[in-house]
Every structure is written in C-alpha cells, then in structure tokens.
# Entry
Amino acid sequence: MAPVKFGVGQSVLRKEDDALIRGKGRYTDDYTPAAAMHALVLRSPHAHAKFKLDVSQARGLPGVAAILTADDVRNLGSLPCLFNLPDEPFTGPPYPILARDVVRHVGDAVAFVVADTVEQARDAIEAVQVEWTALPAVVGLINAVKKGAPQVWPDHAGNVLFDTSLGDKATTEAAFAKAHAVAEITIVNPRIITNYMETRAVVCEYDAKRDHLTLTIGSQGSHRLRDILCQNVLNIPVEKMRVICPDVGGGFGTKLFPYREYALAAVAARKLKKTVKWTAERSDHFVGDAQGRDNVTTARMALAEDGKFLGMDVDLMGDMGAYLSTFGPYIPHGGAGMLPGLYDVQAFHCRVRTVFTNTVPVDAYRGAGRPEAAYVVERLVDAAARKLGMTPDAIRRKNFIPPKAMPYTTATGKIYDSGDFAAHMKRAMDVADWKEFPKRAKAAKKQGLVRGIGLGTYVEVCGTMGEETAQVRLDPDGDITILIGTQSSGQGHQTAYAQIVAEQFGIAPERVHILQGDTDQIATGLGTGGSSSIPSGGVSVERATRTLGANLKDIAADALETGAGDLEFSDGAIRVAGTDRTVSFADIAKRAGADPSKLSASSTFSSADGTYPNGTHIAEVEIDPSTGVIHVVNYVIVDDFGVTLNPLLLAGQVHGGTMQGIGQALMEQAVYDAADGQLVTGSFMDYALPRAADGPSIKFETHNVPCKTNPLGVKGAGEAGAIGSCPAVMNAIIDGLWREYKIDHIDMPATAERVWMAIERNRREHRL
# Structure
C-alpha cells in the first residue's frame, strides 16, 4: 500500500507556523479584556529572613485596588507536592501561597498588588514598608548537609527531606568485593534556569452571577491546573473554574505546575469582582519559576578484568530548594531508576537524598531526572574505560543489553521492550568518521588546538503520564475536529495529530482541527509532559479515528446502498471501491436520519509500562588551550524512536533539545552567593544561553526498532536531545584534556575560564 500523502511517516510542514510567523499567534499576554486590573508580586530580596509588612500607605496610592498578604489568603491551601515514596512516605513542609513571617529564598512571594495599571502597581510595590531581619541561609547541596548548617525548615534535621535507597545493597557490595578494578566519579549536575521564550502569565475573569472563574494561562495542561487550584488551594468545586490555554511559547516541564500567581489572581478577581491580569517579567522568571537539575552524585562501577560491569553503586543528592514543587522529589528518585542506562548491570544500589536549601524550588525540566541519570552513567562508563585502558566504544559494546535479551528487566525494575543499542552506536560512529579522528586530532595539534571526541548513549522512559482521552468528530462542513487534553507548547500537535487522521481518512491536514487547553470543551486531560503526547494521546486519536471511520462507513453504506466492507476513504469522501460512486464527508454530516452519535467517537489509552527511546550522541570538540574556548565542530545523533510520525517535527525536537544540552554543558548555570543566598545569575546579563553560533550543524538519523508495548510503535522523542547531549559533549572535552594533559575531570558548565584554569593548573603541577 502506498503511503498516504499526509499520513504517518511523511515530512508534513507544520500547520502552526503560518500564523506564528505572521505575528498572529495568541498568547496569554496578548489577551487583555477591557477594564482589566494589573498585578505585580512583591518578592523577598533575602534568601532567609523574618519580616513584618505595613501596606497601609501603599493601599492608599492612586489606582491601587487591592494588596493581598498572607492574612488575606490564610484560608487557602498550600501548593501541593504530588509525589511521595511508596514505602517510606514523608511529610513535606507547607508551600504557602504567600509567605507569612519568614521568607526562605530570594524571590519568595510576600504580597500581591493589584492596580489599574502596571505602573501604579509598581509604585505600590515600592511603597510597601517591610521590616526585614536577616537569618542565616544555606545554598549548595554540600553545604546544606554539613553539620551545623543553617536549617531551612526546623522539622527537617540536617536539611534532608528523605534518605532512601533503590536496588540491592548486599548484592552490590558482593560484586564490588570480587571486582578486578573500580571506577569512581563525583560530578555536579548544575542548576539550570528554565528559560522558555514566553514568560508565564494569567488572566482571571470573574462572573459574580455564577460565582465562576475563568483563567487564561499559558501552561502545559489546563485540567491539572484547574483540579489542583480548585481542590488543593482555593477549596472550591472544579465546576466553578474554567482554564483556557492559548498558544504557549515553550514549557520544558516548568509550565506544568500550579504557581502562586494563578491562585492569587483568582482570589483578587473574586474579591474585586473584576478581571485581574499578571504577566511575569523575565526577572520574575529567574526567581519565581521552578528551576532544574542541581544534583551532586558519586558513582562507582565494579569491573571485571575483561571490562564487564559487575555492579554499580551510586550516592545521589538532589536539591529541592526551599519548598517542594509539584513533582520536585520525584525527579532525583525517578531519575535514579534509569541509572543502569543501556547496560547489563545485575547488581545495583543507589542512595537518594533530597535536600532543602534557601533557593528557588527545583522541579521537572526537559527530561526530568533522565538527563541527570544518563550524565552520571555515561561519565562513569568513560571513566571505567580509562581505568582499564579500553576504548569508549569497546567497553560499551561489552556491556550493552543485547537485542536477544529483550524484554529486559533492569535492576531497578524498568522493562525495556526493544532496541539494538550497539547498532545505533555503530551507525553514529560511522557517520562521525570515528576511525579517522586521530588524523583530525593530529592536524588540530599542529594548529595549537586540542581535539576530543565523545560518546553519549542514553535510554529514557516516556508515556507514563496516565490515561489520555481523544474525541474525534465530523463537523457539518466535512472537516474533522479532535478534542484532546494534551497541550502543545511548540511541539507541533496540530500537525502530528492531523497526520494520524490523514493516515486513515486521506484528508489534508488543513481540514483537521485540534482543540486543546479548554476545560469547558474537553472533559479530561493530563496535559503534556514526559514525552507523552504521541505515545499516549496519539494512540487515543488513532483509535478514536478508526472507530469514527467505521461509523461513517455505516452511514455511507446506507447512502450508497452497499455494504460497509465495499467502501474506502478517499480525500474527504467515502466511495465504493473500484467505482466513482462517492459520498462526501459533508453530505454524511448532514444526512437526514443518520444517528448523530455516530458522527463522533472517543478513545482512552494509558501505558502503564511506558516506552523506552534510546540512542547515541557523538560530539567532536576543539579546545584552544590558550583561552579555554571550546567549539563543537561535529555532532552526530542516531536515535531509536520506534516509529517516526513526522521526520521534520522529529528533527526539530531533537535539534532543540540537543542545543539545550549543549548550553548546559558549556555555559548555563544558576549561581547563588554562598554567603547570603543571592542569585548572582539573576538576568541575561549574567546567565548565558546558547546562540546559533554555539552549536554545530547536527547530523541526525534514526535507527528505529518499533516499540512492542505501544500500539503505534512509537517511543516518544521530546526530551531525547537534552538527555544524550550533555554526556557526549563532556566526554568529548575530557577525551581531549585526558590525551593532552591527563586531566580526567571537569564539571559542567565547561566554560572557557574553567577549562583554561584546569589546563594551567595541570601545567604548573607538571613543571613542579
């Protein structure tokens, strides 16, 4: 059967782009209803302090309608943490909508000011009188667990939320006891500011007659926000709130969460019986939105003489910041489950500690624990290769889980259903011209430069958000509309879902309309996270479309006076196969006597097992030892995503994630002052993001093995680029530094200064 023109596997151009490049996108900040009030948040300048507020003078300023403090929201619930340990439940501290008496990080919210204009709200913010009494603050995981460190929360001694473990400690210790050699690393995965293009915003409209709230929010899912805000914070029935998500300019996990400003806007709108709008400035984002990563990990690998991995032991600490964000504790704990990577590691143990510091809370950021895990194991595998004098590819081939072992259950209980890991590594090495690298390194050295080449393999788990329901309906004009609870934040859902419909109906994508992000029009939804939209939502769309197709054939069979089995779809119509007798979708939609319930179908899908995309990244870098400047001169990716829905969309996802990983490897880091907890990198003047010139031309291929646990065969792809890139780049840097200077360690970000200092320190020691 020939492929459908716009169907699965075709490089269909994105439907979304025409409006966006013409400036016709509709984001939250573009929406300002008439007579809307404007709000700002008064934030703490201290990392830890007691405080007393006097808002009397500010309340009397022109245009000021309301100033909310902790007393005004005392009846609200805290922002909830939706994760707990299954066997060792913990009790976290409250995450108040507004801080009362004590602030615990720079940017902690202490008041919400509403005025006629933003300028008047800013005047009122400056007029609020605050008496601050600074308290000792602690930043950095290592500092926080030291004896005598300042306590973020009195009820959590040593600043530890939980101290738990995964795996089998006794078996792992036995493996290390018989090891020929042990490789060990201690690495830092630095904290990241999750800079999406569109800052957060909310517009809250209140209907006093119905006592009903409508919130317009640029988020990653309307239903989750509504349910948490209503049930956990505002204590109102969910029927009293509608959440609408318009266009969303990036999310990366960080827009999943129910932030304080959403509840505050709702309280203010009900109090004033007016519309209230708040839009974050970039400075609000730096200190008010959840941040990412921030782990310190010591990992050891027990090695046999032939390079076989006997056991893996890990000590992992994850920084939670000052409060527990929605999924915060899950990130290090869930990520630890992926630490064995693509390798046959039979004996595994990991200690996981989550730690409080006087910093912005940490939560899911593109990959949410899986990039951290891949970074640890891939750095450790390279260290093991150096320990035994093996090449990075040889030690990986020695320890990869073979295809014949699938399905394979890891030591942490993950079930890999499919994959050929050695095959995609080999293909990546071929494309990267790995064998000829020594010649390129020699040529670079003649120019006074150092070349390095590095591998990063990875596996992640996707599609585990839960049930996702899709409704597919035939419209009166013969077009198709899909209603689904996922939420696009730039991924291309409008195009991807349309292709799934096109695959069955042969209808052009322009005639397929996707409705997301409206709790009044869509019954349920989990939003988008964990690369779940296509592995879960796509299956629901495919199944609902198939059911709708059967319904439409029943109606067409009556119209064409034939059997449904004799019919086929063709370009928005149904025809009797082998003839020119057809009935259009539009005629079916308005056919008299047809059962209207057959013009719509729905389906629900949930993948309890998840899917496991995997792949290989290879980076080649050039280091200038006189300056420490690093250039990525070649980059190759070969991924296994099971089935490719749209190669263009896929390449865009992978390229974007890879650039985020390159940014983290080379330049991104949220830096807090150890003395007073100030965020030193609190703006783009101090926080570096990668630009186009910082990245290479990426060579991207797939070596797909269809997923056996997903009906579409897909594995998920949205986070993969950010997972494989950090270890590939860092292993390449260390490869060059090791061969030239015997430097075997450097932490992210490998800035020019950090690299230059490592080289100079090595030179001084060598001279001594």
